[in-house]
Design goal:
Helix 1 runs parallel beside helix 4 and helix 2 packs parallel to helix 3. It contains 4 helices and 10 strands, in the order βββαβαβββββαβα. The chain is of the alpha+beta class. The chain is globular and about 50 Å long. A hairpin with a 3-residue loop joins strand 1 and strand 2. The two termini are 21 Å apart. The mean pLDDT is 96. It is 34% helix and 30% strand.
């Protein structure tokens, strides 16, 4: 079966983004967003989901990190939607409860074609490194809407902000890996409607 890949380029007055995604990769992440902690989160996403992700972002970081992070979410969501293709044979749903030291986070998603985002994560600090913690919600919201997926997070046990963020990114990667994986029993699209 051919690798499911997508390449998305987005250029605005605020950001210039080039992203390549392979859903059937080996976990190779080549990430440069200009935001160290965000790079670390996306490297974890690639590694733990076994996705190959190549990403170069030039954003207006002299303003703040918001546009860079939100626009990256938009582009990653577009790439996921393009790479997954017609969704025939995939599991569609994915979920993971993931521990990150004292933190326990749940992520559940559905590649339904209907975007919706829910998260109850409240971070104990306003910033991790040079990244505003409120942009974590903006990133995942943008991914969910661009990919047209239902995406839910529940922070079952909070704690250190770094651990909370890392738990969310890793849980998302594992849930997405499950959702896009093939099941030999599914011969078409997993829906009574016949399409997603």
């Amino acid at each position: 079966m051919e690798s499911r890949r997508a390449k998305v380029v987005r250029k605005t007055k605020e950001t210039q983004i080039e992203l390549e995604l392979n859903l059937d990769g080996t976990g190779n992440g080549q990430i440069d967003t200009g935001i160290g902690f965000f790079d670390h989160m996306l490297e974890g996403f690639a590694r733990h989901g076994l996705f190959d992700l190549k990403l170069k972002v030039t954003g207006d970081l002299q303003v703040d990190c918001h546009h860079t992070i939100e626009d990256t979410g938009i582009v990653l969501g577009q790439a996921i939607r393009e790479a997954v293709g017609d969704k025939k044979g995939i599991r569609r749903y994915g979920s993971r409860i993931l521990p990150m030291d004292e933190v326990l986070v749940l992520c559940a998603l559905d590649l339904s074609g209907r975007p919706f985002f829910v998260s109850d994560a409240v971070f104990p600090s306003e910033r991790i490194g040079s990244m505003d913690t409120e942009t974590i919600r903006e990133f995942f919201y943008a991914v969910s809407y661009s990919a047209a997926m239902n995406l839910h997070f529940q922070m079952l046990r909070g704690g250190n902000g770094h651990h909370m963020a890392e738990g969310m990114f890793k849980a998302f990667s594992k849930a997405l890996d499950e959702a896009v994986s093939y099941d030999g029993r599914i011969t078409d699209v997993l829906s009574t409607k016949g399409s997603l």
